[in-house]
């Protein structure tokens, strides 16, 4: 765990980190003394990630092109949004998403999203977020190996620094590869505070299996189609 904390400390957070809430007291996360490596599980999961990412890109390549065109025509700025996040063991990588906010969304500093009520979200971005279509480009992250389909959602180094100040142990999320979706995302998503998300993430890290991954994926499809249980 110390190695993970040292890894996150290598990145300097922006001067300003804006959160839409105030923490009242310190929150201590269960310390994971031992996380099984599960080599067979990791091998199969990686093979399935590659297979499903390729299939997903074949199926969605036309929708991806259409969405890119709509974004380009509807608001000034780039189509895709590239941002550095922390992955497995705190290794930084660039996540790729469709841009859903205005170009100057963080002119006042790094800002934690307020979910559906965030005023920085564009009208098209709101629709993309509602159906999780902004996440489609992350299939390239999965194919490249920086992400998996299922795992804790990746965060920026500055947010890890901010959350660790009161959610002690939050960086344990870095013990596994981040995911496009995760246990926290199908149990509250944007509505969960960091101290609530980490509970689901720790549960996933301790109990992760192919069955759990499949269960999260099916629940993600249900949430996207019916907009229930999570946002």
Write a brief caption for the model:
The chain is α/β, with parallel strands linked by helices and 231 residues long.
Tell me what you see in this structure.
The protein has 231 residues and is of the alpha/beta class. Helices cover 42% and strands 12% of the residues. The chain has 7 helices and 8 strands. The strands form 4 sheets. Strands 1-5 form a two-stranded parallel sheet. Strands 2-7 form a two-stranded parallel sheet. Strand 3 and strand 4 form a beta hairpin. Helix 2 runs antiparallel to helix 4. The longest helix is centred in the N-terminal third of the chain and has 36 residues. It starts with a helix and ends in a 5-residue tail after the last helix. The N terminus is likely disordered.
Count of DSSP H/I helices: 7
Helicity range: 40-55%
Strand content: 5-15%
Mean pLDDT: 86
Radius of gyration: 17 Å
Distance between the termini: 30 Å
Overall number of strands: 8
Which term fits the overall shape?
globular
Residue runs with pLDDT of under 50 for 5 or more positions: 3-14
How is the topology of this model organized?
Layout: H1 2-9, E1 17-18, E2 27-28, H2 39-74, E3 80-86, E4 92-98, E5 110-111, H3 123-130, H4 138-144, E6 148-150, H5 157-164, E7 167-168, E8 179-181, H6 194-207, H7 210-226
Parallel strand pairs: 1-5, 2-7, 6-8
Antiparallel strand pairs: 3-4
Helix pairs in contact: 2-4
């Amino acid at each position: 765990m110390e190695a993970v904390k040292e890894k996150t400390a290598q990145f300097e957070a922006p001067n300003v980190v804006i959160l839409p809430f105030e923490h009242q007291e310190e929150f201590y996360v269960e310390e994971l003394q031992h996380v099984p490596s599960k080599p067979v599980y990791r091998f199969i999961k990686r093979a399935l990630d590659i297979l499903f990412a390729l299939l997903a890109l074949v199926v969605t390549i036309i929708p991806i092109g259409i969405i890119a065109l709509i974004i380009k025509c509807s608001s000034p700025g780039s189509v895709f949004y590239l941002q550095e996040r922390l992955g497995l063991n705190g290794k930084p990588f660039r996540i790729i998403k469709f841009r859903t906010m205005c170009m100057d969304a963080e002119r006042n500093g790094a800002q934690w999203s307020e979910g559906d009520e965030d005023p920085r979200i564009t009208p098209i971005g709101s629709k993309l977020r509602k159906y999780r279509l902004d996440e489609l480009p992350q299939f390239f992250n999965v194919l490249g190996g920086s992400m998996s389909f299922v795992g804790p959602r990746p965060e920026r180094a500055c947010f890890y620094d901010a959350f660790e100040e009161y959610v002690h142990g939050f960086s344990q999320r870095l013990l596994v590869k981040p995911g496009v979706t995760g246990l926290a995302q199908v149990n509250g998503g944007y509505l969960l505070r960091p101290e609530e998300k980490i509970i689901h993430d720790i549960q996933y890290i301790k109990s992760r299996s192919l069955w759990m991954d499949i269960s999260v994926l099916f629940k993600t499809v249900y949430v996207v189609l019916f907009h229930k249980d999570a946002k």
